[in-house]
Amino acid sequence: QLFNAGKPATVANVGALLYPVTQAEYQAQTVPVPPQLFSHSDQSVQWQTSRPDDASANGWGGRIADLMHAANSGDVPMSISLGGNNPFQRGAIVNPYGIGTEGVERLNYSDGGPESWYLEGDNSAGEAAFDALIEPGTQAHLFERAFAGATRRSIDNYRLIAAALGEPPVWDTPFPDLEENRLSAQLQMVARLIAVRGALGMSRQVFYVSAGGYDTHAAQLDEH
After folding, report:
1. Alpha-carbon separation of residue 200 from 52, 65, 125, 153 (angstroms)
2. What's the pTM value of the predicted model, to 2 decimals?
3. Neighbour-count burial of 204, counting CB atoms closer than 10 A to its CB (0-12 exposed, 13-18 middle, 19+ buried)
4. How far is the C-alpha of 163 from the C-alpha of 6, rounded, in Å?
5. Distance CA 57, CA 197 (A)
6. What pLDDT digit, counting tens, does each position of 58-72 carry?
């Protein structure tokens, strides 16, 4: 319905090139082109970084977040992904935070995650031992310190976001087929996060959602 109403549009037959190039120039190799030009996975990365000359470049969403994160007063990352790890949100300063369509995923061991049923009775000693392992400044190895820091940030982030999300609201906007349509479910969670941006101290955010199924190889017109 949105497409038929003229609100979204699809731009086809375009790509991230280093220079304009014709078929003849490509075949004659007279104009530089991106590496692996006809590889869909490489093209996906190049779209998300806008740097077809640098496969390790940060994403343009991440570069935007690096420049604008100071506009937010909250402590959670301004880049949130509903579609898993991605080059688009990779930045030099801001690390993206991943969340599921049902909400935050907690550490099973200390915060009552979905598999914490196996921890019977009082687990205070286990929680204390876990907290000691990730205590700042207590790790000897650089990788251990980095891992402990990432774990602490994850715990802090999901506690803040879970508290802000609370119970799901009643929507006037329809999000159809949430059980079958993964993109719809992702967009609903994005809407929930935008709705609580005030509680999170966010005025600028970068969200990432994904929809697969386009690697068709054959019957492309019908599949699309």
Report:
1. 35, 16, 32, 15
2. 0.80
3. middle
4. 37
5. 29
6. 999 999 999 999 999
